[in-house]
Amino acid sequence: MNIRSLISNSLLIILLLMVQVFLLKNLAVFGVAFGFLYVLGILTQPISIRPVPLMLISFGIGILVDLFYETIGMHAAAATFLAFLRPYWLKAISPSGGYDEGEEPTLNQMGARWFISYTFPLFLAYCGVFFLADQWGTGSFFGALNKILFSSLFSMLLAILVQLLFFQRRRSIR
């Protein structure tokens, strides 16, 4: 990871955290779909990043969101779990030739079909940990499943929209 990508990834995470805290905190579509856009900052880290630093970064990001949401570590736990699962999922959906060194798993670099198959299960895992921890002991298992599914869909839709609008397009040689 060179200094340019380190700075751009850091700025992306800071920007996504600000959008999450100031815009998406009070947004709930029909009371069941919550947007977790800051997770995109974890998901778009370079493929070559090691799991332990990614888990530490994710934990720090989750704690920052927890401070603003007053959720006592639920975002940190879910983000750390997401960072734990990410290398295994990347290996499971690896293309036949493998990944290029330093490649970032973004919509523009990897394509829509690959990106959706990469992000949706990870958003499901993130939302699963978050909402099951949130609903623990209340007996509202089906309500939690409802929030998991619709929040995953809404977060993935937000992630795709942000990437289409703001991420650089891959330049092709023609």
Provide structural commentary:
This protein is mainly α. 68% of the residues lie in helices and 2% in strands. The chain has one domain. Strands 1-2 form a two-stranded antiparallel sheet. It is globular. The protein has 7 helices and 2 strands; from the N terminus they run αββαααααα. Keywords: Membrane, Transmembrane, Transmembrane helix. The chain crosses the membrane at residues 12-40, 52-85, 115-133, 148-167. This is Rod shape-determining protein MreD. It comes from Algoriphagus sanaruensis.
In whole angstroms, the N-to-C terminal distance is: 28 Å
Number of domains: 1
Order of helices and strands: HEEHHHHHH
How much of the sequence lies in strands comes to under 5%
What global shape is seen?
globular
Structural classification: mainly alpha
For the secondary structure, the number of strands is: 2
Count of helical regions: 7
Helix content: 55-70%
Mean pLDDT: 88
Strand order of the largest sheet: 1-2
Most strands sheet: 2 strands, antiparallel
Contiguous uncertain segments of 5+ residues: none
Structure summarized in a few sentences:
The protein has 174 residues and is mainly α. The chain has helices at residues 3-24, 39-43, 51-69, 74-92, 107-110, 112-135, 141-166; strands at 28-29, 33-34.
SSE arrangement:
Blueprint: H1 3-24, E1 28-29, E2 33-34, H2 39-43, H3 51-69, H4 74-92, H5 107-110, H6 112-135, H7 141-166
Antiparallel strand pairs: 1-2
